[in-house]
Structure formats: structure tokens, C-alpha cells
Amino acid sequence: MEKTYVNCTSAENDLGNMEIEELFLGALSKALADINNAGKVIIIPPDFTRIHSRSGLITEMAAKYLKDRLGAVLPAIGTHIPMNKNEISLMFGKTPSKKFLVHSWRNDIKELGRLDANKVEKITEGSVRYDWPSQVNKLLHKDNCNFSLIISIGQVVPHEVAGMANHIKNIFIGTGGKEAIDKSHFAGAAYGMERIMGKTQTPVRALFDEGLNLFGAQMPPILWVLTVIDTKKDGNTAVRGLFIGFGRECFEKAAAFSQEINVNLLESRVNKMVVYLNPDEFRTTWLGNKAIYRTRMAVADGGELLILAPALERFGEDLEIDRLIRKYGYRPREEIIKMVNTNTELKCNLSAAAHMIHGSGEGRFNIRYCTSEKLSRGEIEAVGFKWGDIQEALSRYCPSKLSSGWNTLEDGEKIFYIPNPALGLWAENSIF
Q1: Which of 35, 186, 233, 279 is 20 to 30 Å from 353 at the Cα level?
Q2: Contact at 8 Å (CB) between 263 and 158?
């Protein structure tokens, strides 16, 4: 079914909670009537790493409206650490905690079907040659569930793997399995992240779309609820767009609007970029490296990316991936591709290999992670980064004294400051 219920944009003004509730519940009512089914509903929101998406608020609205029809809430954690009780409470408010389930990307998997290696090679323009499985949490397969509707909620924003986040990525990756996540992530990294970031039509998106077209009928209908979020001058976030519907049209509209709102094009590359990682959100480089791949197209050759990471405590969200990062480090794309071709351990852990590419400066610029004793200088330098003391860095680059964008310090140093790399993409305009 292709149907858009809400296509609401406001480039200048926030969409307030009352307006969001009115638009969302109106769309949900129409969607339930259109599928003509009174069965249970499962909600697939993002996890705490996407708290700015307003997905928690919308989930809470849905739970209140659905009441007993709400069957489950399954956060699309993918490879991330499962949410704890405090995070669930902070993000999802009064949504009943007993409804929350935890997705295990290594165990809770149902394969819907598989794209053969010839098709994958063609879609990725020869970047990789292997088959790719469309995988979902087993609860989403019609044979294993009693759900009449899936509500997939999330933010559309530039993304290093798919080009633009969300839509079927929320299902195939957020509730997918190791093989699907590994192979899709590496396909994007091998193709080239700079060719993907901020684009709607990409090889990885094409893999997802083909999987949905061929195998999507094995799942209940999916109602997409998509937000576009902007960072205001005071550092707070605002909802600028809300898009709701069945099919792909609402995603295309959301992606086009996100490109307008979230892609920040600069006239020239930056010699000194400073990025802050909020301690409530970023405790691993698996997530914190958004500071790298969301800015890589904006940092000048020979420049420095300085990352303020006060809560960083390890590299991978998953302990096995953490081990692999510590063993192999962050390396340029061509080095990792060669290693994958000859190294069985990396070949069996392609998402880790892809992440090692995403977290590299490709030898063009320096990356300096400023951390506390939770992740030591030796550990940081061992994976290929430079290190800085977090207290010294915060003293010089105090987030509360910096404005988003260009700043000139008292001694004349000129820096470009980003308070949250998760909310956008920064690039020199000539290369985007």
C-alpha cells in the first residue's frame, strides 16, 4: 500500500507536542481503519542513542491511544547495548515498561529471503560480491506473531551506511541479524562513505528496498512515522518535519527535507574542528565516531578533528566488536578491504571492518580523542587516534561558551564547533 497521511514541514518554527500528537493520532486512526484489522500492534522505535528523534514521545502517544491493542514495543537496537530501565523511562515516559522487549541481533532472527551474489554485485556497482539476507526479529514474521500492524518510528538524518537513516533500515538493521548487518555495512564502506552520506539513492538503500519489495509481504503492514530534527542556535533541538504513511513516498519526502535541514555545506574545509559528545549519549566510539564520519568531508587535509568525549569508556557496544577494534584499530578504506580479503576473522565480522573504515581519517587529517581515565591514552593511541586530556580540552574548549559553527577564541584560534554530531552532516560544498 502506498499512502501518505502526514507531510508536514516547518523550516522556521518548531512543531510542538500538541501539534505532533494531533497529526500522529489522526494518521494512526486512519491507518488502522485502512488496514481494517483490530489485532495487536507492535511499535519499533529507535533506542536511547536516538533520543532526540522524539520517537519516545510518539511511542508514548501511541501507547496511550492503543491501550490494550498495544502488543509490544521492540526498540530497534541493532548492534547497540540494550536499553536499561532508566533510559526507557527517560525516553518513553509513561509507556508501560512491561511492553518492552529486547532484540538480540545474534539470536532472535527470522530470514525472509536472500538476494543472490550477482544481484548484490550489480547493485553495489562491483564493490562486493556476496549474497545478502533480509532478516528481521522473529516476532515480525507473520507465522510467528499476531500483530496486525507494525508502527516504525524514527528520525531521518544523513547516515554513513544507508545514506539517509530510517524507513526499512529501521527494520532490516534495527531488528536484523548479524549477517544482514555485517554485509550491508561493509557494502557501504567498500563502495565509499563519501559517495553515500546524505544521499537518498544509494547501493545499500537499494539492497534494503529490494529486500522489502521481494519479501515484505511476510510481515504485517508497516506504518512509517518519520521525524526531521534540527539543532537551534541555543543547542536545543526542534522538530521541523513529520511524515507518516505506508509505502516509500513519506520517506522520500522526509529525506528531501532532511537534506535541506540537516546537511550543512561550508564554503571551505575546516583546519580545526571541535566536536562535543554528550556523556548521556556517547560512551563508545561505535557511536561517538559520528564525530568523524559526519564531519570527514569538511575537515581540511592536514587539519585536526578534536573530539571532546568525557564519558567514553570503550570502543564497541558489543564486547566482541570491542575486542576486534582493539586488535585491528581504525584504518583507511583500502587497508581494511585488503585485510578483509585475507583475514578470516575480519571476513566473519564485516560490520566491525566497516566501522574501522568509518572511523578513519584516511590519512588526510588528525583525529584527537580527549578522554578521561575510563579510556586511557594508551588505549586510544593503540587503535590509531591521537589522545588529549579531557579536562585540559574542556578548559580551553568549554561547550557552554561555544556557539554552533565558527568561533574565535581569545588568543585568536579559529575553530568550527559542533555540539552534537548525530544531528547532521557537514561537508565542503564543492564535494557534496
Answers
A1: 279
A2: yes
Identify how many contiguous H helices and E strands the chain contains and give both numbers. Answer: 16, 18
Domain map of the chain by residue range? Answer: 3-263, 267-428
Question: Strand, coil or helix: what is 190?
Answer: helix
Ordered DSSP codes for 72-89: EE----TTSPPP-HHHHH
Neighbours of 80 (CB within 10 A): 21
**DSSP string of 372-393, one letter each residue:** -TTS-HHHHHHTT-EEEEHHHH
Helices (H), 173-282: 178-191, 203-215, 249-262
- 154: which strand partners? 226
For residue 418 the three cell numbers come to 559542533
- Helices 350-358 and 319-328 meet at what angle, rounded to 10? 60
Q: What's the CATH class of domain 3-263?
A: alpha beta
DSSP reduced 3-state for 347: helix
The CATH number for 267-428, chosen from 3.90.226.30, 3.30.70.1150, 3.40.640.10, 3.40.1180.10, is 3.90.226.30
Q: Are strands 132-137 and 109-115 parallel, antiparallel or unpaired?
A: antiparallel
Euclidean distance between CA atoms 9 and 301, whole angstroms: 37
- Give the total residue count for the chain: 432
Q: For 85-119, give the DSSP string.
A: HHHHHHHHTTS-GGGB----TTTSEEEEEEE-HHH
CA distance 257 to 261: 6
Rg from Cα positions in the chain: 21
User: For residues 99 and 73, what is the distance between their CA atoms, to the nearest angstrom?
Assistant: 6
Report CA 298 to chain centroid distance, whole Å: 20
